[in-house]
Specification:
The chain has two domains: 5-232 and 415-428, ATPase, nucleotide binding domain (Nucleotidyltransferase, domain 5); 242-408, ATPase, nucleotide binding domain (Nucleotidyltransferase, domain 5). It has helices spanning 41-55, 58-61, 99-108, 121-131, 133-139, 149-158, 166-169, 183-186, 210-216, 230-237, 290-296, 299-305, 348-372, 391-401, 413-428; strands spanning 5-11, 15-21, 27-34, 64-71, 76-80, 144-148, 163-165, 197-199, 204-207, 223-229, 245-250, 254-260, 272-276, 279-286, 380-384, 405-407. With 436 residues, it is an alpha/beta fold. Strand 13 (272-276) and strand 14 form a beta hairpin. The structure holds adenosine-5'-diphosphate. Adenosine-5'-diphosphate (ADP) binds at residues 251-252, 290-291, 293-294, 299, 302-303, 306, 385-387, 389-390, 393.
């Protein structure tokens, strides 16, 4: 009997990455490929995909039972719905659309909906709409369709061009709770371009095509599962499975994501929820974080100072609000909030500890805010990002949060997608009933 393997593919901001895992979630192989700068975006992405698949050792490739793909959120393509061919250059995740388009999105969608951001998928569709691009294609007998990056890459494998997932569809305006496009979206003249099926991340979609099996050496039964966005795949990678578990990302900014039973959306604090498994992934971001540390210390200075910190048992009593510029959204909604980094002690180790304590206080306040707004109280925090490598900070945070704080063993989005693929395979192949 052949042991199945599961493949996760991440289409990130600068390149694509692939991870193969086994049933015990051990990594069997991984490979990454930077996007070519000399080709159109869609050609660069398809080249990266075939490269990643070619890089899987042949004995593993034959055993890939399922795969899932994540892509950058709100990277949007206008394609021929029959062939997947691009009808316009893809619009990337961070491309802000013109103000006229943003105005239109605001008139359509509920106030402060995530689909009204200038970089949202909805604004990208509206921009194509204003340019008359899909109308022109239809006049030529083409059936245009809108897809996200992850959907398109999956389409190259299973040949289905009208399928997306809850997570990618959120910034389009899809309602993952009611599982439909709300009327304000469904009534638009371009509504027939939207994905026809919206599935849960990690649910079975369909097998790869015979042509792809031939070309890649993957088994023809290899099942493509619903994908997700790159940041949610990175969350899944941390291994969070139960409500109350969360991931804090300590990079340039402080971002938290909590798996909650209840959904929390609150535009005042920039909080919104993605549907994930049987729960909701509530996310929020503060403007404090590692960028403030960088204003004062290089990473090597941080590493040098850390062993000199007095530590969690000896708090400094300093009460800062570390920001690189005025303005905060979460856990305090105040666009004019001033950075507070005074008084500065003579000893840099005391100053650093004061900053670390203050960021930890803001993190704890954020989780309290989520609970106050109805989310499941946090019970365990995984940590990702540059701040995760500071053990003293981890101890300080554990004290502030009052729950176990652990470093994520895995933070690769591709690993998260591999976990989704494994889940999809299990859904499609439930264990046979035991016959007595
Ligand atoms: P991003 O991808 O958001 O730029 P990273 O996850 O790479 O961020 O993390 C970088 C941040 O980590 C920097 O802002 C830096 O201040 C912080 N950092 C690096 N080393 C340490 C350390 N030893 N202790 C605390 N913070 C650190």
């Amino acid at each position: 009997r052949i042991e199945p393997l599961f493949l996760g593919i991440d289409f990130g901001t600068s390149g694509a990455r692939q991870v193969v895992i086994d049933r015990s979630e051990r990594v069997q192989s991984e490979f990454s490929s930077a996007y070519s700068q000399h080709e159109s975006l869609d050609t660069a992405w398809s080249s990266a995909l075939w490269q990643l698949l070619d890089a899987i050792p042949a004995d593993q490739r034959r055993r890939i039972a399922s795969l899932a793909i994540d892509g950058t959120s709100a990277t949007t393509l206008l394609i021929d719905g029959d062939s997947g061919r691009c009808l316009a250059p893809p619009k990337l995740y961070n491309e802000a659309q013109p103000q006229s388009v943003v105005q239109r999105a605001r008139q359509m969608a509920p106030a402060e909906h995530t689909a009204t951001a200038a970089t949202s998928t909805l604004c990208k569709v509206l921009a194509w709409d204003e340019e008359g691009l899909w109308q022109g294609a239809e006049a030529q007998g083409v059936e245009p369709a809108i897809v996200h990056q992850a959907d398109w890459v999956a389409g190259l494998l299973h040949g289905l061009w009208r399928v997306t997932d809850y997570n990618n569809a959120l910034k389009l305006g899809y309602d993952p709770e009611a599982e439909l496009y709300p009327d304000w979206l469904a009534d638009q003249p371009f509504a027939h371009l939207l994905p026809l099926a919206v599935v849960g991340p990690g649910t079975p979609v369909g097998p790869i095509t015979a042509e792809v099996a031939q070309r890649t050496g993957l088994p023809p039964t290899c099942l493509v599962c619903g994908g997700t966005t790159d940041s949610i795949a990175a969350f899944v990678a941390a291994g969070v499975s139960e409500v109350g578990e969360a991931v804090t990302s300590l990079g340039s900014t402080l971002a938290v994501k909590l798996l909650s039973e209840a959904r929390v959306d609150d535009a005042r604090y920039g909080l919104y929820s993605h549907r994930l498994g049987s729960g909701w992934l509530v996310g929020g971001a503060s403007n404090t974080g590692g960028a403030v540390l960088r204003q004062f210390f290089s990473d090597s200075q941080l590493a040098e100072l850390t062993p000199r910190l007095a530590g969690a048992d000896h708090p400094t009593g300093l009460d800062y609000y570390p920001l690189t510029r005025p303005g905060e959204r979460c856990p305090v909604a105040d666009p004019n909030l001033q950075p507070r980094l005074e008084p500065r002690p003579a000893d840099d180790a005391v100053f650093l500890q004061g900053i670390l304590e203050s960021i930890a206080r803001i993190e704890a306040q954020t989780y309290r805010l989520l609970a106050d707004l109805g989310a499941t109280p946090v019970g365990r925090v995984y940590t990702a990002g540059g701040g995760a490598r500071n053990p003293v900070w981890t101890a300080i945070r554990q004290r502030q949060l009052g729950v176990p704080v652990v470093v994520s063993a895995q933070a690769e989005a591709a690993f998260g997608s591999a976990l989704l693929a494994k889940q999809g395979y299990a859904l499609a192949n439930p264990p046979a009933a035991v016959v007595m």
